[in-house]
Write a structure and sequence with these properties.
binds 2'-deoxycytidine-5'-monophosphate, 9 helices, alpha/beta, 219 residues
Amino acid sequence: MKTVNIAIDGPAGAGKSTIAKMVSAEMGYIYVDTGAMYRAVALYLTENNIPDEDIEKYIGGVDVSLKFIDGVQRVYLGDRDVSELIRTPEISMAASRTSAIPAVRARLFDLQQKLARENNIIMDGRDIGTVVLPNADVKIFLTASAEERANRRYKELSEKPDCPPYEEILKDIIQRDYNDMNRETAPLKQAEDAVLVDTTELTLEQSAARITEIIKERI
Ligand code: DC
């Protein structure tokens, strides 16, 4: 049976994961966060002190998998649940670097395609509509200004004790945008047939409602 595949791409901090979770809960689809897979690989490399130039040698042995518990994604390295450990600013930056390496992308590409073949999914990332699921039923490109994205991240982190200053968060976002858009393999860009949704002026609820509307119009 053909599964329904919805691709959501966009830069860091545009609200992809929060919005995709809301929409997938409403539609009864599985939400797949591909950024978490790149983060898990980055964590493995960091913990094992593997330099970028040696990744190709080790990537075959990196066992990343996803489990869905009540529809909620957990990320595993081997049998260790690393879903929380991958959410630090250091791993964000490391993931942005390691995700530029073709051998890393090739390994995760296979896993992502398999998930899409077997499940009705909303998958978010940077290259889902352009590379991983070029035939997705619906493609959305979700964005917001860099300042607004930094603002949102700052608000999220400000509840934690070691919150970095706003300027540092903005600088990181601009750096990650640059890395993601300028790498040679599968750079972040809007697919020709993707619908652009700019959430700078929208609340989460408004963004989710807009995306649900776009999906329902098309499937
Ligand atoms: O969405 P995120 O911030 O969790 O993603 C972490 C990094 O992984 C990000 O800098 C870009 C990379 N990534 C990617 O290259 N391709 C994807 N499909 C998803 C994420």
